[in-house]
């Protein structure tokens, strides 16, 4: 496999006449990335985060990020992980044949990726140098007599073109290019692909330089030590600037096979070096911090990209589910798009992600592709299997959100999920999965005993699942005995689905979190869930916000809450609960255990608003608050509370010794009500955030409140109080709590409100 493999792989990217039916030149360039298995350390980026926020419970629990994962997203980032009691330790995975893990490698670490360059088997070139070369800069031409600038072999690269290993360690963005060779002697003699690459790099680098504060994640930015601020949701992030010769350099390190590894004619030692690097190609293309550009439009006269063996392998490895990795299909770019800004180009070229091919499926596909040397077909099957075993079969998390997958793709996913032996977190949020796809998933779970033994978290939020689909999943759930968290946020689930799920819940003994937010569940479904709650001995969180539950459903929950010894968070916000439901919940509140877990600043016992509560309901809640000594957050936003109810709340506030945040946004509070709150503020030592926007008070009430707030020594930016209503499109949510700035209208893609116990 060794020597022949690398020599032939290089030749195989050319487009010379085929030497046989299965040995046609595939033009598949031997990308500077082929290779060995990867470490089991797959994406640990938040899989479902944002459904649950801010809990300080021991352990590294399942990450639930409700907003980001589905149709809303981003700033709220505390998780269900924090809620789940035992946490999910990363399992130790045995080394496999050729595994990068065996060498101490990782598909997340730039440091370890840089080490693979230390032996000199490959080099990376600066993107800015490629731009100059494409533009015909004299300093980049190896031969002054050359008619045009073309890519030089690695042996002919000037020193200024090379990116050092230290630059990779510092976090320089990484880019791997998959393309087709045009001829057997040179991959791009007409420089057509070089010119395209140069234009794209120029666009990207220019855009990055215009950014005043570039983020850390560019075409594959690598940042191990500083990735706390990385946003995983950006379509194309930026890499950190790295120091070069005492200055800050904004650039990208590019892996392109003709320049990155030794080419013919070469010495025996150079040939062996190229062969060694062939074994590493997979780790480069699959690495989480490597952005991949697929130049899927072959040069004129060359074999199509889709018919080449090596490009098929490179594409398949690049699209394996690893973190928030970006893969661009440059072939989707229209000629006029080159004049667009970089974000538009990146958005247009996002590669279509399909369910990962199993090793057997890839081998079948490679049999239909053209190779200059048939031996490479076997080699690529082995290299892909090594990466697949580490990245998929030993995956702890499977990040498959926002893939635009429907029911058809769920059927194609069966082989992939069936091969997972240690999968703990499955994220299928923001796809197009319907009832048929949910039924397929249920069958996969029942037919995959290894998944049944390991799966802790299943998130199907932001799909198109209705009652039939949830009924199918509910029938399979009791078999998934390891399940700890379920999320079905933003689907089309009504009472029948909720009722069937309620029947299955008592058999899910380990379930700790259930999210059914933004569905169509009414009182019947709520009643069955309420009946099942006391039998869910480990249930700590239930989110039913933004459904169709009325006072009847609220009363049933009120009867069940005191029987739920482990329940810490309960969210019934923005339903149809009125004063009657508020009365029942207020009466139950002091008797339930929602306040028992209040030590160490835990946010339990919160009440959410957004329903139909008026002065009467506010008064009843005020009476209950007198006995809620550990209440720390109270949200009664978007109700109909006026001055009378506000006065009763103000009288109760000083007795809530832990009350830190109060939200009365968008009610009917006038100057008198604001005045009563102002009188209570000095007596509320823990109160540090108050929102009174979009009420009916005037300058007099606002002035009085501001003066009382400042006199109490509280931070100015933590009081949101304006006499004139701000124009907002909806509830800003708990994610905005504590924000000193304006209230942003809630739109699709915005972060999900924090999950709290609610009315």
Automatic annotation (TrEMBL):
Gene3D superfamilies attached to this UniProt entry: Ribonuclease Inhibitor
Alphabetically ordered keywords of this record: Leucine-rich repeat, Repeat
Record Pfam families? LRR_6
Where do the record's region annotations for Disordered lie? 1-28, 735-759
InterPro entries in the record, alphabetically?
A: Leu-rich_rpt, Leu-rich_rpt_Cys-con_subtyp, LRR_dom_sf
Q: Which PROSITE patterns match?
A: LRR
Task: State the name under which the record lists this protein.
Answer: Protein NLRC5
């Amino acid at each position: 496999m060794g020597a022949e493999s690398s020599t032939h792989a290089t030749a195989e990217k050319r487009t010379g006449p085929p030497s046989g039916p299965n040995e046609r030149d595939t033009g598949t360039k031997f990308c500077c990335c082929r290779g060995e298995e990867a470490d089991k350390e797959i994406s640990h980026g938040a899989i479902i985060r944002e459904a649950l926020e801010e809990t300080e419970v021991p352990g590294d629990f399942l990450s639930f990020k409700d907003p980001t994962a589905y149709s809303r997203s981003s700033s709220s980032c505390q998780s269900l992980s924090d809620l789940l009691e035992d946490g999910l330790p990363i399992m130790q995975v045995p080394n496999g044949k050729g595994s990068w893990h065996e060498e101490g490698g990782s598909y997340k670490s730039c440091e370890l990726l840089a080490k693979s360059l230390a032996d000199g088997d490959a080099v990376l070139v600066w993107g800015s140098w490629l731009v100059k070369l494409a533009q015909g800069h004299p300093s980049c031409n190896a031969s002054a007599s050359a008619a045009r600038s073309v890519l030089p072999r690695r042996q002919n690269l000037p020193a200024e073109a090379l990116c050092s290993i230290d630059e990779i360690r510092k976090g320089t963005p990484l880019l791997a290019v998959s393309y087709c060779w045009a001829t057997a002697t040179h991959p791009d003699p007409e420089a057509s692909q070089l010119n395209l690459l140069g234009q794209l790099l120029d666009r990207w680098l220019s855009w990055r330089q215009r950014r005043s504060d570039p983020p850390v994640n560019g075409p594959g930015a690598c940042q191990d030590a500083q990735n706390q601020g990385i946003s995983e949701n950006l379509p194309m992030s930026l890499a950190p600037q790295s120091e070069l010769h005492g200055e800050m350099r904004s650039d990208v390190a590019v892996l392109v096979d003709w320049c990155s590894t030794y080419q013919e004619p070469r010495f025996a030692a150079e040939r062996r070096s190229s062969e060694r690097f062939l074994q590493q190609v997979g780790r480069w293309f699959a690495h989480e911090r490597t952005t991949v550009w697929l130049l899927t439009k072959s040069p004129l006269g060359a074999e199509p990209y889709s018919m080449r063996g090596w490009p098929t392998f490179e594409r398949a490895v690049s699209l394996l589910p690893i973190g928030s990795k970006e893969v661009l299909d440059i072939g989707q770019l229209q000629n006029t798009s080159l004049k667009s800004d970089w974000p538009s180009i990146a958005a247009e070229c996002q590669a279509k992600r399909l369910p990962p091919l199993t090793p057997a499926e890839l081998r079948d596909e490679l049999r239909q592709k053209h190779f200059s040397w048939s031996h490479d077909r076997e080699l690529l099957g082995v290299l892909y299997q090594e990466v697949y075993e580490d990245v998929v079969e030993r995956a702890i998390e499977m990040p498959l959100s926002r893939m635009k997958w429907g029911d058809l793709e769920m059927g194609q996913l069966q082989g992939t999920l069936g091969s997972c032996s240690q999968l703990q977190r499955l994220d299928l949020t923001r796809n197009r999965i319907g009832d048929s796809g949910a039924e397929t998933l249920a069958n996969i779970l029942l037919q995959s005993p290894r998944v049944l033994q390991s799966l802790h978290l299943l998130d199907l939020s932001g799909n198109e699942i209705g009652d039939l689909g949830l009924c199918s999943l509910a029938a399979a759930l009791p078999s998934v005995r390891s399940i700890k968290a379920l999320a079905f946020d933003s689907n089309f689930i009504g009472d029948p689905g909720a009722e069937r799920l309620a029947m299955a819940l008592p058999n899910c003994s380990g379930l700790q979190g259930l999210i059914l937010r933004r569905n169509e569940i009414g009182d019947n479904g709520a009643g069955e869930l309420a009946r099942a709650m006391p039998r869910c001995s480990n249930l700590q969180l239930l989110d039913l916000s933004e459904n169709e539950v009325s006072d009847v459903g609220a009363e049933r929950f009120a009867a069940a809450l005191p029987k739920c010894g482990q329940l810490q968070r309960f969210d019934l916000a923005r339903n149809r609960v009125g004063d009657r439901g508020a009365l029942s919940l207020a009466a139950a509140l002091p008797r339930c255990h929602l306040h028992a877990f209040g030590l160490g600043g835990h946010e339990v016992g919160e009440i959410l608003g957004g329903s139909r509560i008026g002065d009467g309901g506010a008064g009843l809640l005020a009476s209950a608050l007198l006995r809620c000594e550990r209440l720390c957050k109270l949200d009664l936003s978007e109700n109909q509370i006026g001055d009378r109810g506000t006065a009763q709340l103000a009288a109760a506030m000083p007795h809530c010794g832990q009350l830190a945040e109060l939200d009365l946004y968008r009610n009917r509070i006038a100057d008198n009500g604001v005045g009563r709150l102002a009188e209570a503020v000095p007596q509320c030592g823990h109160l540090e955030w108050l929102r009174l926007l979009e009420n009916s008070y005037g300058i007099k009430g606002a002035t009085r409140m501001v003066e009382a707030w400042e006199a109490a020594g509280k931070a100015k930016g933590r009081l949101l109080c304006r006499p004139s209503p701000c124009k907002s499109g909806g509830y800003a949510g708990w994610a905005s709590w504590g924000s000193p700035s304006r209230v942003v209208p809630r739109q699709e893609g915005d972060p999900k409100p924090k999950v709290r116990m609610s009315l």
